[in-house]
Specification:
Elements lengths: L4 E5 L3 H9 L11 E6 L6 H4 L10 H6 L5 E4 L4 H13 L3 E2 L2 E2 L4 E2 L4 E2 L4 E2 L4 E2 L4 E2 L4 E2 L4 E2 L4 E2 L4 E2 L4 E2 L4 E2 L4 E2 L4 E2 L4 E2 L4 E2 L4 E2 L8 E3 L4 E2 L9
Parallel strand pairs: 1-2, 1-3, 3-4, 5-8, 6-9, 7-10, 8-11, 9-12, 10-13, 11-14, 12-15, 13-16, 14-17, 15-18, 16-19, 17-20, 18-21, 20-22
Antiparallel strand pairs: 22-23
Length: about 220
């Protein structure tokens, strides 16, 4: 039986990391063949040669005659990831979830489609993860937490138990979110921040404890 094909959408640093992870046989949730990277422009050869990742075209050229059944969006920005995923869903491709073999995913964890769970990440008991969520290297998610669609959790972040992270939020590297807190849709938690109170949607917080960042005036830009 012919193996179905997979493409990685994106060609930045995270996409190259994902491609490297695909060399580990146990990473794939399905028995698939990785074809290459799809991105708006062909990446510089020196950025992909070390991982032997071929460029298979941009979205337009690839979708004109798609040669894959599955895709994974390796783009950190949630808004871009949402737009790209919708386009590939509409074209009839299927999102694939990738879990690194060194990640710890509890037996009661529910993962949506199109997720990427990085090396040494840890998801505890009764965690609910939506579609197209990125939980990067060494990040931890505590018991009974909910991570909604298109959330990005950067490396070494700590999400305690009973936390709710709404769709499209970004949790920066080494950030911590304390027990039972809520992070609103589209919110950004800065790197190294410690969230002790709920974060409203579309708000950026930073610092210890995390505080709302004031928008710059036009004269300050």
């Amino acid at each position: 039986m012919e193996r179905p094909n997979l493409v990685v959408l994106g060609a930045g640093g995270f996409a190259r990391e994902v491609w490297s992870l695909l060399t580990e046989e146990s990473l794939l949730a399905e028995n698939v063949t990785a074809l290459g990277l799809v991105s708006p422009e062909e990446p510089a050869r020196n950025s992909t040669v070390s991982i032997s990742a071929p460029w298979v075209g941009n979205d337009e050229s690839f979708l004109a005659q798609p040669k894959a059944s599955f895709y994974v969006v390796a783009i950190a920005d949630p808004v871009t990831r949402m737009r790209v995923a919708a386009r590939y869903d509409a074209a009839g491709l299927h999102p694939l979830t990738l879990v690194h073999p060194t990640a710890s995913v509890g037996s009661t964890v529910k993962l949506g489609s199109g997720c990427i769970i990085g090396a040494m990440a840890s998801l505890s008991a009764n965690v609910r993860v939506g579609n197209h969520v990125h939980i990067d290297r060494v990040a931890t998610v505590g018991h009974d937490s909910v991570i909604q669609d298109f959330v990005t959790v950067h490396p070494a972040s700590v999400i305690a138990g009973g936390v709710h992270v709404a769709s499209g939020a970004v949790i920066g590297s080494n950030a911590s979110i304390l027990q039972g807190r809520r992070v609103g849709a589209g919110a950004v938690v800065g790197a190294g921040a410690v969230v002790t109170h709920d974060v409203h949607e579309e708000v950026t917080v930073a610092g210890v404890p995390a505080r709302r960042m004031k928008a710059k005036k036009d004269t300050d830009l």
